Amino acid sequence: MPAAVNPWPSFAAFFKFNERPAGRIPDATDVRSEIAQAEQAVRARTPPAAGKQARHVQQPCSRDPKTLRRFGHLTVPCLPGVRDGSHALSRFIERLDLTRRGRELTRISYFADSITSGDKITSTLRNRFQQAFGCGGPGYVAVYPLRPWHYHAQVGLTLSPGWRPYCPISHPSRDRRYGFGGIAIGHQGTGNTVKFQLKSAATSFDVVQIHFLRHPEGGAFAVVAGQKRVRVVETRGDKFREDFVRVPVPSGRELVLESVSGGVLRLNAVFLEKEGPGVVVDSISLTGARYENWSSLPADHLRAEVAARAPDLVAFQFGLNESDTGVEDNYRDLIIDFFTRMRATRPLSCLVVGPSDKVEKRNGRYRTLPVILEIARLQKEAALAAGCAWFDTLAAMGGETAIVSWYEHRPRLAMGDLTHITSDGGELMGNLIYHDLLLAVGSL
Q1: Structural contact between residues 219 and 236, judged by C-beta atoms closer than 8 angstroms
Q2: DSSP 218-245
Q3: Which alpha helices (DSSP H) does 199-357 contain, by range?
């Protein structure tokens, strides 16, 4: 597309390379430099005025629906069955454009296994997007700490005794209603609390969105901010169904949810946001999780939770746990069906982030587990078939057995199990994903 008629100019010309040679570990300094150049180019671009269409030549997706656009290690397909030129990231880019014009909040929900525990990867994405496009607050905060390494980088969590967790991995429930982030809590009685407290230098919030289960024996909870009861929410209803409230709160450092009646209370998710334009990144990490855990959620529950949260981009990064047991025979179709149902809930973009490297040592030599390569292949096929973008994590890391070099790097980028990444590794991986997304945002 000629730059003269494209308000989102291709950024390829700004860089000496978009894809690093296989076997080469990405240099953190180089990646940060490339990000700075890309952000500068985005800032220099004036988005189309509200209500006006940008001047475009015919889009590649309009000419050939089989077109694939590549940006570094990110592949963006056209949407299946769509004739207007839309692609896998159309909704996300359109929403970012509104955010840049000061009109809307852009929501990114990033689901993963333990690769993002401790807000790794996602905290970098949050910081990057918020610095470039405006701060939308901390986002999703899990309502129960299933593991010591399950925490939000910006928000501390304190629960009073008595809450019962529900999670598909370790605390299953009969109804399988685990909320947007896969962790819900329940309690009967009064006086139980969940406290959210901002850590030092964390972003602020001025609205809280709370997902809960409404049912005939539902109790009530109070929203307390600045030591003042802002609102009491009654969860009793004539039948079991998902519901949510958005409550403006005084801008401060602490929020408390307190049960105030003798009924049964089920809290499904909590999100801390800022009203107004900006970007919010939800970090949803479940140790031991795999695609099957999400695809098996009750259809009405998944639909209600996604509709209530209203994400503009959902990213899913799984595969490490599948590599322990092997993938289901229908793994590819399972992923396609899941994202098809997600996209049918509301307009959204989807991104499949491939599994990271995982190695074994045989006869004195390291090799990437063959099952990791198979998982990556199946995920890529599923992503492109479902109309989702695909990020090749293994290639971005440097190719097969790259995690060995990540471990040997100083500071260490990977842990000694040659499977998980460190905080420094999470920052690098988050920057790699952000960089390629930014290239796509600037070129599509």
Answers
A1: yes
A2: B-EEEEEETTEEEEEEE-B-SS-EEEEE
A3: 291-295, 299-309, 322-325, 331-345
Torsion of Cα atoms, 165 then 169 then 174 then 177, to 10°: 70
Number of domains in the chain: 2
Question: What CATH number has the domain bearing residue 255?
Answer: 2.60.120.1360
Q: How confident is the model at residue 83 (pLDDT cuts 50, 70, 90)?
A: low
128-145 tens-digit pLDDT? 999 999 999 999 999 999
**249, 255, 256, 221: which is closest to 235 by C-alpha?**
221
Q: What is the CATH number of the domain that holds 280?
A: 3.40.50.1110
CB 102, CB 279: distance < 8 Å: no
Q: Do 32 and 108 lie in a common domain?
A: yes
Under 8 Å between Cβ of 76 and 85: no
406 Cβ partners below 8 Å, 6+ apart?
Answer: 25, 357, 397, 398, 412, 413, 414, 421, 425
pTM: 0.92
CA dist 50 and 407 (Å) reads: 48
Structure confidence by residue, pLDDT tens digits, 282-298: 999 999 999 999 999 99
- Please tell me the distance from the alpha carbon of residue 100 to that of residue 298, in angstroms, as a whole number: 36
Count of residues in the chain = 444
3-state DSSP percent of the chain in helix, strand and coil, to 5: 30, 30, 40
Q: CB-side exposure of 239: number of CA atoms within 13 Å?
A: 1
Pairing of strands 105-112, 278-285: parallel
Q: Which of 433, 303, 339 is nearest to 79 (CA)?
A: 339
* Same domain membership, residue 285 and residue 149: no
Query: What confidence tens digit (pLDDT) does each residue in 173-219 have?
Result: 999 999 999 999 999 999 999 999 999 767 889 999 999 999 999 99
Same domain as 146, residue 131: no
Looking at the structure, do residues 127 and 184 belong to the same domain, yes or no?
A: no
Q: What is the domain extent for residue 221? A: 140-275
- Indicate whether 329 and 443 sit together in one domain: yes
What's the token pair of residue 443?
């070129």
Amino acid letter, 320: L
Residues contacting residue 154 through CB under 8 Å, at least 6 positions apart? 119, 123, 138, 198, 199, 202, 203
